[in-house]
Structures are given as structure tokens and as C-alpha cells.
Predict the structure.
Amino acid sequence: MADARTEWIAAVAAAASRTPGAPVEFLGEYLPMLASAAADGRRPDAGQVRAVRALGRRAAEAGVGADQVVELYLSAAWRMWRELPHAERAGDPRTVHAAAGAVLRAVDDAVGALVEGHQSARRDLIRHEEALRREFVDDLLRGDADVARMVERAEPFGLDLGLAHHVALAAPTADTDLDRAAAAVERSIVTRFGDREVLVATKDHRIVVLAPTSATARSTDPPRELTGTIESACRTASGQRWRVVVGRAFAGAYGVARSYEEAREALQLAERLHLDEDVVDPRHLLVYRVLGRDQAAIVDLVRDVLGPLDEVRGRAATLVETLHAYFSTAGVATETARRLHVSVRTVTYRLATVRRVTGYHPSDPDERFALHAAVLGARLLDWPRTPLPDL
């Protein structure tokens, strides 16, 4: 009798496993448990429920979907009931009804435990993958890890480190749900450029996007289109402004770190300079990067060239702002006046004041260069709002 029961249970399991394509091994002792419930109305005990939950975890770890294993269990249940030996189904209607109720209750307990185990394993796998991604991105952007090992670790993420990559950074201007914005960016990037070797992650409360030049090759201006896509997705997801910058593309693992450093430095400069642009072009900040690499020299330049403006009570900041606008408009006083919302006469008066106090003429080619460099340095140091450091 035992051998016959084993045979029909094995036959039911094999038939059920063919429908969803889930391996029969994930049934475990599920069918004998249902058969026992039909025979004596016994509900699965704690040990049996734990065993089914463990099978759910194993299925998730093996890459079998929850829908597949649930379909396996339900298919096995109705097949078992249909093919249950006559002796176990015979009797009056109340007996059959009680047996059916016991089987359905056992199915409910088992499927609930199965899904719970599957979901628990999936959450663990997702957390593990996220940790691996964060660790990989940190090592890649730092640029000091073993290159051969980085190439190997990049494969699961679909990255070919032999290609040239842009690294783009997006920073929120206020507190926001960074993970939600990152998910929106990933969807937009995949929609616009495809999923070819593009990686989206978060680091230091910023969104990081790695995109190979091959992914943006169709665009006439890849960096601008990439940053525009990222900025639009971030703004839509959060409802607020973001500042986005992309580094130039460089080949290799070290090239990724170089592009990241370029983007990071440009983003920091944009924040220090209080730029209004949402999408920042690092090329426009090159002169600030050059000036910032020798702080002692730039402090001396600002102090020697613009320092005398402190003698003009409360007007140093206004005069520096006027000089910056004047140089930004190629020395056109009317355009400077329009940008500053003042009269042309006011602009010329301020420029004359600068010449009288500093000794530098804004219109003289030789003196203009030193004055312009000093103004750029003042913006970098946030002078005169912030006192010059003593170096």
C-alpha cells in the first residue's frame, strides 16, 4: 500500500512540474502533507510549514519565480485531489466536504509559507546585490583598486571597462528621496539610450550615472543630452531643482575615476559659485579649477588687486559683481547695465571707481587680464562676503 501511495504521489508531482516548468524538487513533502490532511484532517505542523518556507527560499535563490512555484503547488493540489485513491475519497458528503476543507486549509498554509520564504530570499538577494553595487561603484570611482579585479567585477553589471565612459552626477538642491529619483533616472536612461552597459547608483547623496560613449553615439551632443535626460527625470520625480554635471569620457577603469573626479570637482565649484544653471558644463569652469589649485597665489592676487575696494564702504561686493558682469558681456556697458538692472551711467561710474581705487583699468588689455583673474578668484573664495584666509 505504501509503495502504491508513493508511486501515485510521484506521478502527480511529475505531472504538476511540467506545467509551470518549476523543478519537482521544490514540492518537497508537500503532496504527502496534503494526502495526510485529506485522510485525517490534520493541519500542517510548524516543522512542515518551516520546510515549505525553506523551499520557497531555495526557489528564489535558484532564480525560479514566485508565480512558477505557486503554480506548481496549486497544480499539484488539484491533481492530487483528482487522483486521490478511492478509499480516501469515499464516504458520505460530509466526510468528503471535511476532507476537501482540510486539503484547502493545508494548501493555504503551504502556499502562504512558500511565498513568504520566496519573498524573504528575494529581499535578501536584492540587499546583497545593492551592497555589491555600492561597493563596486565606490571602488571604481575611487580609482585605486586592482584593475584586473575591477574588470572581472564589472561583468555582472554589464560594463565593459575597455570602453570610454562618461560619469554624470546629479545633486538635489534640497532634501529628497534619492532612491526614488535614482529609479526614475534609470528608467529614463534606459528608455533614451537603451540598457547597453549603463549603470545608475547613488554615492554621497548624489546620483551617479556611468554611460559608455557607445550608448550616446547617436546624439550630436552626448554630454548635453545625457545631462538633460538626467535633470528632467530628477525634477519630475522629486518636483524640485537639481544640479547636474557630466565629466568627459575616458577609456579604462582609471578613465571612469578621472571622469568622476572631473564631474565631482565641477559640481563642487558650481555649488561654491552659486551658479544658476541646472546643467553645468565643466568646460566653463576650467579657469576656476586652474585658479583653485594654487590657493595661496589666488589669495595674494585677490588681496593685491581687489583688496583696495574694501576702502569703498560697503560697496566692494557691488563693484566685484559689476566687474564680473562687465567681463561676462565682453566689456559692453549697455549689456552689463541690462544684466544688473541699472543704468549705463551707473555702470561707467562703478568702473571708474574701480580704476581710481585699484589702479587697474577694466578696459586696458594688459590690466584687464589681472583684474578679470582676480574677479574669478574672488568668486571662488566668496570674497568679500567671506574674509580672505591668512596663508
